[in-house]
Amino acid sequence: MINEYRNRIGTNIDGIIRDMLTELIHISDEEGVDFQDRVDAAVAVTAEEDKEDDRREFEVEFYELHASKVRLRAKNKADAILMAVCGAHGDVVDNSLEYIEIAHEYGRSVNASELALSEDEQKEIQDTLSLEPDGKIEGLRSVEEV
Fold first, then answer.
1. End-to-end alpha-carbon separation of the chain, Å?
2. pTM more than 0.85
3. DSSP state at residue 48
4. How many helices (H) and strands (E) would you count in the chain?
5. Beta-carbon neighbour count of residue 122 at 10 Å?
6. Rounded to whole angstroms, how far apart are CA atoms 18 and 5?
């Protein structure tokens, strides 16, 4: 419903939620329902669900290969390459940044101290990804709880 409304009206999620709440208030008034009581009940249920949810939030960072273009003035192709490689800053070509793939040759070993994974976590990853005990998780740079 929300995505359909978003596409039809062309508003952001804040506007959609406001409009939906406005409609719910009208319906509640028409039906004789205490809207604020229902909001309070929904907040209480959400808090209870959050307590039962044992998941935590993490940020997982990957090494990725990207391609981008810069435009600079040079005498010839070799000069242009050398200027770019040696740090001459040209003008970034608009919309030239392109994702290529995960940087497979980079990554962290499943038992890397930087990851600080428990033995159970290491085993779960090894089993799921069919890795050796010191196997590399391709492209993985870090994981941090936030």
1. 31
2. no
3. H
4. 5, 8
5. 19
6. 12
- Angle at CA 58, nearest 5°, toward 57 and 62? 155
Tokens 């039962």 locate to 52
Distance CA 104, CA 138 (A): 5
How many residues comprise the chain? 146
Give the up-direction half-sphere exposure of residue 82: CA atoms within 13 A in the CB hemisphere: 6
Helix (H) / strand (E) element for 67: namely strand 64-67
Residue type, 56: R
Quick: pLDDT tens for 65-119.
999 898 999 999 999 989 888 877 788 898 888 999 999 899 999 999 999 999 9
What Cα–Cα distance (Å) separates residue 142 from each residue in 32, 57, 99, 110, 124?
Answer: 53, 14, 19, 11, 17
Q: Exposure pattern of 79-108 as b/e (b: 16+ CB <10 Å)?
A: ebeebeeeeeeeeeeeeeeeeeeebeeebb
